[in-house]
Amino acid sequence: MFSTAVALTTYIRGSDEETRIMRCRIIRYLVLSQIYVLRNVSIQVRERFPTFEATEDANLINSEEKQLLEETKDNYSQFWIPIIWAEEILYEARQQGKISIYMGWLKVAEDMLHPLGEEFDNLECNYIIDKNLITGLSLVDKGGKQIPSPQKDEFWDKQNTLKRNI
């Protein structure tokens, strides 16, 4: 989720309220999707979020989103629904000219396919949910606002950039 949040901050530029809401909704939807997947493999997550009401009580979905989830009939899972919502927001951002470099979304798509990384053994799933939500929202809301001005540094035009202690 960290690299997805960094990509959102990098490629969906703007500090206006609408743009910030877009970035935060995408993170929230991706974390929500994680919750619905992790509920199937973690008893702790299932106990923490046993129903849509529990995710609503945690402010991860609102009443409209809850209703849309409940109305979607799928015999196996509804984890994919928030991902579709996130993709729709990305499409809207692109239509509005808010996405600065479209090729960066290849990395975002890859991260969405493997949100927990390659290794998924003995993870504390509730910690991952909390960490991803807090870090993701913080990054997309506060990251990328101002970067240092470009200037030549100590390594400019040098072949041996680092001194070695041999």
UniProtKB/TrEMBL annotation:
It is found in: Cell membrane; Membrane. It comes from the Eukaryota. It is a multi-pass membrane protein. InterPro entries: Bestrophin, Bestrophin-like. One of its GO terms (molecular function) is chloride channel activity. Signal peptide: none annotated. Keywords: Cell membrane, Chloride, Chloride channel, Ion channel, Ion transport, Membrane, Transmembrane, Transmembrane helix, Transport. GO terms for cellular component: chloride channel complex; plasma membrane. Its main location: membrane. Forms chloride channels. Belongs to the anion channel-forming bestrophin (TC 1.A.46) family. Calcium-sensitive chloride channel subfamily. This is Bestrophin homolog. It comes from Panagrolaimus davidi.
